[in-house]
Amino acid sequence: MNGTCIVFGLLFLTAGILFFCGKIHGRLSLWKNMPENERQNIKIRPLCRNIGFLIALSGILFLTAGVFAWFLNYAFVWAMIGWMVTAGLDVLYIGKSRRYQVK
């Protein structure tokens, strides 16, 4: 067992769940300082679910690496590379699509 991976896994999983439920975005200084008219143009609920899922997924990867030594030794690096590619594609999708914008 790797304690560091377990701690990071629990932190990321908790943050991901909080984002997914929409409980934490209101506490971010960027969101607080954003002008009201910009806030109204964003569909925050689906965006929080998207980002929360990605953060929770990284938490699951860290937890798996912390609990299973074989995953940490053989698959963790490749899983994190896959997660980074997925997150990058997701950021591109968020930027290009109009799914998260109020019409």
UniProtKB/TrEMBL annotation:
Keywords: Membrane, Transmembrane, Transmembrane helix. The chain crosses the membrane at residues 6-26, 47-70, 76-95. It comes from the Bacteria. InterPro entries: UCP037672 (IPR017259). This is DUF3784 domain-containing protein.
